[in-house]
Amino acid sequence: MNDFPKKRFPNLSPLSFLLSPFSSQVTLFTLLIFFNGCTGSQRENDPEGTSSCIKLTNVCDSVVMVGIGWDNMTAISTQKGIVVIDAGISYSLTAKYREVIEKHFNRNDFAYLINTHAHHDHTRGNPAFSDAVIVGHRSFLTEIPAIWKDTDRVLSRASESISYYQAQLDSLPNDSPEWREALCNKNIYMQLLRDVSGEPEYAVPGLMFDDTLTIHAGDVTFCLLYFGRAHSTADVIIHIPEKKILFTGDLFSKYGRANFRTADKADTEKWLRAVDWIESRMTPVDIIITGHGEILSRDDLQSFNKTVRKKWGEIQ
User: Fold this and answer.
1) What pLDDT was estimated at residue 40?
2) What count of other Cβ atoms lies within 10 Å of the Cβ of residue 288?
3) In this structure, how many other beta carbons lie within 10 angstroms of the beta carbon of residue 143?
4) Per-residue pLDDT band at 46 (split at 50, 70, 90)
5) What is the DSSP letter of 294?
6) How far from 191 is each of 68, 197, 243, 290, CA to CA, in Å?
7) Domain ranges of the chain
């Protein structure tokens, strides 16, 4: 994922004045005043009640997902420390996710953070794990700086997303499940806007690889394979044989729908090899987790494999 909600409310323009060429700091300050309806003490302790939006889900033994809606990360407790897959869109939110993980596992030794790709909704939280080894494909070195430098675009898209969710809040019954979901999604972008003007410098991987990498974390093994340029230039799939889990990043969604955004046909051979790699591990895979916390079935995975073979296998 590298975009913000597509749906728009054409008659809703409370933020149009914010998209004029003022500085990021002015835009951010105005947004906080405009949208923050909490009392002073609430704002100080937990702006917009963000902490109450965070959900922890047990995936299997020693594996949890933590996040708010689509902004999601997975943590695995191993003998060598906690290993995290992806880091979310907001440094400040990810810092809160980290606290939840620490409390759940009753430990704070983070060994690795593995990024499935370089898009900012997976990497802006990287600095929250500065004490861990960050792992990713070598193309991070060129992709992540380009993504992070476009502050104006981030401000504009996040502002549009806040408008979208504010319109939902205005139209839904207070405290209904749908209202609560809209509030939590709005809070993601509020946190992002806070971060843009004051977040730490982006954190690129300290451990990079070109093709494959195996990380031994005591009782858990992480097998990484570079998929090739598809959804991004740095797509990585991760297999944990002991947990029977496969992480696929944003390569596909339910029903095996491929999400190739920067696909380069020159990488067709890599895609087909990756499908072979996945299929060789199908038997010991019970859980497929996407880059935004969706748990897919083996049927979804097989559909994706078939799509790649049918659509791009003929190119060779």
Assistant:
1) 45
2) 22
3) 21
4) low
5) P
6) 12, 11, 33, 23
7) 52-144+203-315
CA pseudo-torsion sign 145, 150, 156, 157: negative
Concatenated DSSP letters for 161-216? Answer: HHHHHHHHHHHS-TTSHHHHHHHHHHHHHHHHHHHHHHPPPP---SEEESSEEEEE
pTM (2 d.p.): 0.81
For the cut 70, the answer to whether the pLDDT of residue 215 exceeds it is: yes
52-144+203-315 adopts what CATH topology?
A: Metallo-beta-lactamase; Chain A (3.60.15)
Residues 138, 4: Cα–Cα separation, whole Å: 26
- For the chain, the residue count is 316
Task: Kindly give the interhelix angle for 177-198 and 24-35, rounded to the nearest 10 degrees.
Answer: 150
Closest listed residue to residue 73, CA positions, set 29, 31, 40, 104: 104
CB 103 within 8 A of CB 220: no
Dihedral angle sign, alpha carbons of residues 93, 99, 104, 107 = positive
Average pLDDT over residues 247-254: 88
How far is residue 84's CA from residue 56's CA, in Å, rounded to a whole number?
14
283 Cβ partners below 8 Å, 6+ apart?
A: none
